[in-house]
Amino acid sequence: MTKDTNSKFDRRGFLISAAAAGLATPAFSIETLGGGGATRRNISSFRALDWQPYFNSLRNGAILVDITSRALHMWTEDGNYGLYPSSVPLSEDLTRRGRTSVIRKVDGPTWSPTPAMKRRNPEWPDFIGAGPDNPLGTHALYLSWTYYRIHGTHDTRKIGRKSSNGCIGLYNEHIAEVFGKAKIGTQVLLI
Fold this sequence. Notes:
By secondary structure, the chain is of the alpha/beta class. The protein is built from three helices and twelve strands; from the N terminus they run H-E-E-E-E-E-E-E-H-E-E-E-E-H-E.
């Protein structure tokens, strides 16, 4: 099979164009572990979704978090849509699914570990103030479920991974966008 060098459409050109336009699906890597098994990392699906299968209306806006694809979808009340890569809980026992809502918005949040976190990690500090060492990043949306948040992170390696103790993490620039669009009462669904 010969390569058609005159072709106006080739795979390399398409991939370069898609990446430049921000349309490419992020790659994932497979790391081989000592036991010969493989672990998938940084998996994220950037597939746009419609809100109708998940919500009855866009009153107060809507946020859908897909734990499997590690993506946060947001629709404002007027129908504007945003899609953001996210971090998700480390394990199934830390994962909560279902409907909740935004009950509080905090610019410059402080952080204290939950009692369960403190039992698992007694060496962790009892409190971290707002700033670059804060695990909640620059902004946090507090959900009606106790201890659950959608928040930023200063540790960008966590995005696209199973890396949280239950919360949903976003890049700080993305949580700033979501924070600006979210309202108290924005409906949230984790699937």
